[in-house]
């Protein structure tokens, strides 16, 4: 973590190794590390009860965080179950930006999308230097449709003309809009009276890092 809390509840960065503070998420003891290998950061004596999405801080990660004001960095969010997570960046409009440098599983991507979606939405920043070698793109689709029934007859309407009504219906502007939709796939006719307009909706388009 980049920030912890001092005894007055202020967000502070590490000044020296061994410095003591309080975790911004779980309120447990945080200890400063300020070495030559990794960037300065806070770590827990016991991290079991803190954010299970925590990942080691890298210079690449910090460079992105530092492009935003301090008050927007490492913001604690919680859901209706009081589950807490540390958003890398939270903009003033509520949108979260996750800065992802390390491998991440598809299930965890979905969990983060769901959690931060409740709080305003999520944008990913991925390390492009690793994309070609260490990532894959996965898609999931859902087929959905619009169904219209044209009755073959209507009681008490002796002049009802099924063929005429069907042809007029298919020429209506809202039908043409469906067929011009970017996700439109095909139209099927069932039993001569049900017109089903099938569309494809992309549910998930994910860049996932692989080990």
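Q: What amino acid sequence fits the structure above?
A:
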């Amino acid at each position: 973590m980049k920030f912890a809390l001092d005894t007055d509840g202020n967000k502070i960065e590490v000044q020296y190794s061994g410095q003591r503070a309080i975790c911004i998420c779980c309120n447990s003891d945080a200890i400063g590390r300020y070495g030559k290998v990794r960037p300065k950061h806070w770590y827990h004596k016991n991290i079991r009860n803190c954010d299970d999405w925590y990942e080691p801080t890298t210079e690449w990660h910090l460079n992105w965080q530092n492009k935003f004001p301090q008050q927007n960095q490492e913001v604690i969010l919680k859901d209706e179950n009081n589950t807490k997570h540390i958003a890398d960046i939270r903009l003033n409009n509520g949108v979260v930006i996750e800065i992802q440098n390390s491998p991440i599983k598809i299930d965890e991507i979905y969990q983060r999308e769901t959690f931060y979606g409740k709080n305003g939405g999520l944008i990913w920043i991925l390390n492009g230097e690793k994309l070609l070698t260490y990532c894959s793109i996965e898609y999931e689709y859902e087929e959905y449709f619009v169904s219209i029934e044209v009755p073959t007859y209507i009681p008490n309407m002796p002049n009802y003309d099924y063929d005429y009504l069907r042809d007029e219906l298919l020429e209506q502007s809202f039908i043409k809009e469906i067929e011009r939709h970017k996700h439109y796939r095909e139209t099927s006719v069932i039993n001569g009276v049900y017109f089903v307009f099938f569309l494809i909706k992309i549910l998930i388009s994910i860049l996932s890092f692989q080990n």
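Q: And what stands out in the fold?
A: The mean pLDDT is 85.
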